[in-house]
């Protein structure tokens, strides 16, 4: 019988670059452990509940889980503009080290939701040993990602009725309510994760409401290089309206999909 997991807030990393995370686990050494990576900007806030429930469920089935805030986001140190690709790669390495020590296992798996797939795939493509990875509704084109952010931003500023009595003029570096460094957007635009190659022998589980051309190219490329790719389809009606202007700022909690993902993670033991 599964026991209720413990969840422990913790700060980790160097004093000048502190990260905040929430560790979900049961007492004692764990056979498996997973780092959960939140998407960037507004979707990072909107997915708090879904990732929390997923981490709790994983921990209850014996998988210690660490959710953390990227440096420059949430309760981690740094201002919004400190968010960078190089910084996120360092955050991933630090999260892995921290979870490995706390869970007492070197077997670290990864889960990325939406835009978190981009920094995570860059990070893992540089590894030499096989990796275990879950990509949930991943966004693999950096150009398409940044364009979608700008489109959502324009919709909020001028089309959603958010400012009915005055025209709000955003700051030059403002994007979806965050101060975003221009260099981050440039770096993300240049990323095409369909061109990244994971180490041979890796295992990727794709959790999808719908497969687009990027997903098809990515899957084909990985399989051609000896990576196992498993696709799990989720109920399309359960998909959150990530780009829907009227749902901006609301929690995205696809209950049935989270339950299905939890079952798949548990059955992977």
Oligomer: single chain
- Per DSSP E runs of 2 or more residues, the count of β-strands stands at 10
Major sheet attributes: 8 strands, mixed
Proportion in helices: 25-40%
Q: What sequence of helices (H) and strands (E) makes up the elements?
A: EEEHHEHEHEHEEHEHEH
- Rg is 18 Å
Unreliable stretches covering 5 or more consecutive residues:
none
What is the percentage of strand-forming residues? Answer: 15-25%
Strand order of the largest sheet: 1-2-4-3-5-6-9-10
Structural class: alpha/beta
Rounded mean pLDDT is 91
Q: Given the structure, what is the number of helices? A: 8
Written description of the protein model:
With 269 residues, the chain is α/β, with parallel strands linked by helices. It has helices at 42-46, 48-60, 85-103, 117-125, 142-159, 182-189, 213-224, 255-267, and strands at residues 6-12, 19-25, 32-37, 63-68, 108-113, 132-136, 174-175, 178-179, 203-208, 228-233. Strand 5 (108-113), helix 4 (117-125) and strand 6 (132-136) form a beta-alpha-beta unit. The longest helix has 19 residues, at 85-103. The two termini are 15 Å apart. The model has no long low-confidence stretch (mean pLDDT 91).
Descriptive key words:
8-stranded mixed beta sheet; two-stranded antiparallel sheet; alpha/beta; 269 residues
Offer a concise description of the structure:
The chain is α/β, with parallel strands linked by helices and 269 residues long. The chain is built from eight helices and ten strands. The two termini are 15 Å apart.
